[in-house]
Amino acid sequence: MTKLAVIALGGNALLRSNQEGNMDQQNKNTMDTLENIVFLLKQNYNIIITHGNGPQVGNILLRNEAGTRDYGIPSMPLDVCVADSQGGIGYTIERNLRNLLKKYDIQREVITMSSMVEVDPDDHAFVNWTKRVGPTYDEAQKNELEQKNGWQFRSTPKKEGAYRRVVPSPTPISVMNSSWIKELCDRGVIVIASGGGGIPVYFDQLNNLVPVEGVIDKDMASSVLATSVGADEFYILTDVPYLYSDYGTPNQKVLEFLDYEDAVEYGHQGAFGEGTMQPKVNACLDFIKSGGEKAIITEATKLQDKKFGTKITLKYEETHKA
Predict the structure, then answer these.
(1) pLDDT by residue (tens digit) across 41-58?
(2) Of 54, 90, 120, 162, which cross-links 112 as Cys (Cβ 3.0–4.6 Å)?
(3) What is the CATH number of domain 4-120+173-321?
(4) 182 has catalytic annotation
(5) Is the pTM of this model over 0.70?
(6) Selection from 241, 257, 255, 235 nearest residue 3 by Cα
(7) Exposed/middle/buried for 158, CB within 10 Å: 0-12, 13-18, 19+?
(8) Which residue in the list 10, 12, 52, 53 is annotated as catalytic?
(9) Is 131 a catalytic residue?
(10) Which tens digits make up the pLDDT trace of 279-315?
């Protein structure tokens, strides 16, 4: 039977941290990343691609601010900025993927979908804002923007006297159009969806869709989508080849195989880093708990090499048989 895989591309799949972010760089990075999923297509996998949007939506917010300040152009709300990033990034992935399919003579269709994701309007995230977005500001700029726009800020951990805007990051409940995504995948179409975690919305008392000023974690939204379409495998591509326990310490240890219970226990011990790898692990655990066969966290260029990547399954024994 044909397997279905959801592949979540990290922000570095399109834009590296040491780059300015021009389109030549983003196109090359995208093609380099997509090259690493060709082996799945050659094995006749059906594929859904999701992606982050951190650097890109930050740039959109900068343009927003500059347009308002310099030209009086009305600023767009965050949900529209996320939608903008979905369109731009999705187009970049789809165009490069079509060229890649031509290169390898693989006959597949590709479609990019704008994705809304349902959240709970009573989510605690709307009380405790934690998700950093946009550029870094000094204290004077922070104070001005707090007064002018009513924004909330938090200091950045790595730079003293620097602040970034924070917004709610609610838990995703469902990805809209997931049944159509599943149907397209069953026909062999490669679907690009749920970009940047999806556009957060909720249903009001009249069952109308209402946008939310917030950002959803893209790995959690990808996990929800993977579960809803009945995916067999879930890949999170990031900037390290493995998960490590006690990362950056003399006791650092590669974790290549993890079963569900061990991954939970490592998380309780704080082994993965609450603001870095732990959310990715949580997304994988949710997928496995909901019936997924296997979740893999690895660096994009290592995807084809089965020696790399942390493989999470329900039972450790099953991993060694895979």
Answers:
(1) 999 999 999 999 988 888
(2) 90
(3) 3.40.1160.10
(4) no
(5) yes
(6) 235
(7) exposed
(8) 12
(9) yes
(10) 999 999 999 999 999 999 999 888 877 678 999 999 8
